[in-house]
Give the backbone structure.
Amino acid sequence: VRLVESGGGLVQPGGSLRLSCAASGFAVRWFDMKWFRQAPGKERELVASIISDTFIDSGGSTNYADSVKGRFTISRDNVRNTVILQMNSLKPNDTAVYYCNAELSDRAYWGQGTQVTVSS
C-alpha cells in the first residue's frame, strides 16, 4: 500500500490549489479515504473524507471540517485510483502540510504529505 500526495505549493489568499493522492496496492473506490492537515505547532486535523462504494446508499458521501465547508471538495477518480482535494478561496490559516489517509485491515496508511502555503 502506498499513498503519494502532490499539488501543494505557494498561493495567494483567495487562490486555489488541487491536491492529488495517488494510491497503489488497493482500490480507493472500496475504502474510506481522508485528507488531514497539520499546521506548525498544531495537531493533525481531519479536513475531508469520502465514503467507499461498499454500500450503495452511502457510497461517495463526503464530509468536511466546518472550517473548509463550501471551499474544499473531495472526490475520487476510480480510473486513475486517485483522491482529489480541490481547495478554493484559500486563507492563510489553511497553511499546513496536507496528508492523504486510508485505513485497511485496521491499519492506517499515510502519504508523505504536501506543503500548502497561503501567503501574500
